[in-house]
Design brief:
It comes from Moellerella wisconsensis ATCC 35017. Keywords: Cobalamin biosynthesis, Lyase, Methyltransferase, Multifunctional enzyme, NAD, Oxidoreductase, Phosphoprotein, Porphyrin biosynthesis, S-adenosyl-L-methionine, Transferase. GO terms for molecular function: NAD binding; precorrin-2 dehydrogenase activity; sirohydrochlorin ferrochelatase activity; uroporphyrin-III C-methyltransferase activity. Then it catalyzes the NAD-dependent ring dehydrogenation of precorrin-2 to yield sirohydrochlorin. Finally, it catalyzes the ferrochelation of sirohydrochlorin to yield siroheme. This protein has 17 helices and 19 strands. By secondary structure, the protein is α/β, with parallel strands linked by helices. The chain has 4 domains: about 15-115, NAD(P)-binding Rossmann-like Domain (Rossmann fold, 3-Layer(aba) Sandwich); about 150-210, Sirohaem synthase, dimerisation domain (Helicase, Ruva Protein, domain 3, Orthogonal Bundle), CATH 1.10.8.210; about 220-330, Tetrapyrrole methylase, N-terminal domain (Cobalt-precorrin-4 Transmethylase, domain 1, 3-Layer(aba) Sandwich); about 335-455, Tetrapyrrole methylase, C-terminal domain (Methyltransferase, Cobalt-precorrin-4 Transmethylase, Domain 2, 2-Layer Sandwich), CATH 3.30.950.10. The strands form 5 sheets. The protein has a 5-stranded parallel beta sheet, sandwiched between helices. A 5-stranded parallel beta sheet has the order 10-9-13-8-14, with helices on both faces. It has a 5-stranded mixed beta sheet with strand order 15-16-19-17-18. It starts with 13 loop residues before the first strand and ends in a 5-residue tail after the last helix. The structure holds S-adenosyl-L-homocysteine. S-adenosyl-L-homocysteine binds near residues 440 and 441.
Length: about 450
Amino acid sequence: MDYFPIFCQLAQKPCLVVGGGEIAERKARLLIDAGAQLTVVALSFTPQFLSWQQAQKIRLIQRAFTDELINHQWLVIAATNNDAVNQQVYQAANARQTFCNVVDSPQQASFIMPSIIDRSPIMVAISSGGKAPVLARILREKLEVSLPQHLGRLAELAGSLRDTVKARFSRMSQRRQFWERFFTHPNLAQSVADQHQPHIQASLNQLFDAQPSTTTPQGSVVLVGAGPGDPGLLTLKGLQHIQQADVVIYDRLVSEPVMQLVRRDAERIFVGKRAGDHCVPQTQINQLLLQHAQQGKRVVRLKGGDPFIFGRGAEELALLVQHQINFSVVPGITAASGCSTYAGIPLTHRDHAQSVRFITGHGKDITLPEWRCLAVKNQTLVFYMGLTKAPLIEASLLAQNMAPTTPVAIIENGTLPNQKVVTGELQHLAHLAQQCHSPALIIVGEVVNYRASLHWFSS
Ligand code: SAH
């Protein structure tokens, strides 16, 4: 072990930063956050230092560094842009047995600063011993994504309950069991994330009332929007849920790369639907969600795009509401947004489209007055599930006097490596649709012309 990792209590303890530039500012900010009694010495300071001084958060000394400034300091950071000065600081600190960090020079420092993920009071620190700072940063980014923001609040809540738990459970083993149930409770963490006080209280009551060995935790269901395909378009919250789920119920629109992010030991249930070929009827999907939640599992219903946009999300929740199952919904990037962006087509444009309509080609045929509303100028039309209805869309819009030359685009497998985009004119829409396969989105409107100059994503 080249470095000994510790977390220091610096509140009210004198610390010194030498340097008044931007790097020094970053170090000073951390020390201020840790509550240190901070002195900064430098020839000049950034405006941030001056405002900290005004707010009485730090003390500034505007002059050259001299060794005795280190006397009585707990920690010193040398952060000037002058190597000789940094060296002097380090040697002076060493002589006084005071820990000293020299920025960008781990070999000459008696402590180095890790990459941190701050979910106070939970704190994760990563170090490569100064050998591969970029790797440490990449690891930090990975952990940053997988550690939910509410982790700190959950730890605070645990801290506030320590005495109560001690009083309630006399044996160490009982207390340990309690805390295991506390941190793995299917709803508590989510309720803390949502800051839903009644749900938090309900979960706590359940935890305190429960006999450790006989409890079946209450399950929950989260509808998660998986986005149109590119796993990078999944939200952080969506990712956290699919990594915690016991069961993931998904369909055909959820891409393989997104499924690879699901926790390895989670049960996966495919309820794939294809146009006109419902593999699992909707009522059965609803039942599946209910049954698994009733068994105490954390269920994620993973849906393509956004669950509430042509996703039957509300129908799937209805049965859960009826049975008082805890649920939440995580929105996703809907196909219209994802596919148009990856095709270089802005859905609105100040000059060409002041509104945008999302229309489903599935289900009951759109009625005549509706077509009249659709065939207006300065509006973008986005048809979901419209491929087989392309002849109807073409004929109906033309019948409402929409210009036959109106630009159209069909985007197949949008945002995925096999994305295919065909463009043309409204009068040829039905013909263009024959070249495409589901899932595909049809966009009608002047904005399609922007693809020529704005396309950026290619397979
Ligand atoms: N809830 C989803 C839509 C479900 S309806 C959402 O918000 O995106 C299914 C239709 O969405 C498909 O028929 C197709 O029109 C469209 N769609 C979904 N993903 C797509 C993709 N990657 N590429 C093109 N169209 C897509």
